[in-house]
Amino acid sequence: MSRVYNFSAGPAVLPEEVLREAAEEMMDYKGSGMSVMEMSHRSKVYDGIIKEAEADLRDLMDIPDNYKVLFLQGGASQQFAMIPMNLMKNKKAAYIVTGQWAKKAFQEAGNYGEAIKVASSEDETFSYIPDCSDLDIPEDADYVYICENNTIYGTKYKALPNTKGHTLVADVSSCFLSEPVDVSKYGIIYGGVQKNIGPAGVVIVIIREDLITEDTLPGTPTMLKYKTHADADSLYNTPPAYGIYVCGKVFKWLKKMGGLTVMKERNEEKAKILYDFLDGSKMFKGTVRKEDRSLMNVPFVTGDKELDAKFVKEAEAAGFVNLKGHRTVGGMRASIYNAMPKEGVEKLVAFMKKFEEEN
What does pTM read for this prediction? Predict the structure, then answer.
């Protein structure tokens, strides 16, 4: 069985090189006589794995010393509660709602205090990023929250919002490590890894140290306090050990590729191939305002549901899988994360051209 081109939004394509390496080490990790899956998280060997993964991530993102890197569980969705539990000192936070996940985070925060929607693009099915240069942010808001790349809708912030001095919290699940980032602009930058970094089950939280305190909302479970995990170097309880090991391999792969500046160039090149085709096509249309387009997730439609379904079916038969769009947008969506090779995008476009001619 040859490998397909997997355009899934997540769990998503991983670098083949990483999968091969993991396969080679499956039965015996570096002479330990066992798999990383079987290894105690308290062992010296595993300690080396998690520490090296953190060091490589710090290196890739140039993470300042006053930020902690936490490898946690519960996915990005658990952070929707963990963030207000740990940060809502004044019981007030500002949310910019640009998609399904930002909306869920906003709704969840309402359980812990006053969540204020300061901007939204829901009026046009989240097909753009609102102007965030001069928002009405309450003086006493504890933080401003964004989802930086919207997986379902294919939008991406090209400029961070003006938070007027408030702490910025960002969910970067679907653009994690796709381009260089200035971590110092954020209080918390976090994401589930299953889109652009590793297997499902790990969420990485990069958090400024002054935000890690004992002073959490009453009733916050021990496991949902950042301090619990920061004090124990992400080893308070058994972490998603194997997932972290694979993430570590992806960090090494990214460094070998030349780091995040090179990844951004590669991602821009891949996205351009697909967007240029969509802009010139008579059948297929992109659904996002041009200036807000994501490099990672590209939704598109034909305008005819039956034709969309036919396209998805024929594409799958041709080895292009997981192209069906999210039910809230319909149509198709190609997720072209770091590990998607350029030839995958070129071949998809060639297939789309052929489909357009035949239909």
Answer: 0.98
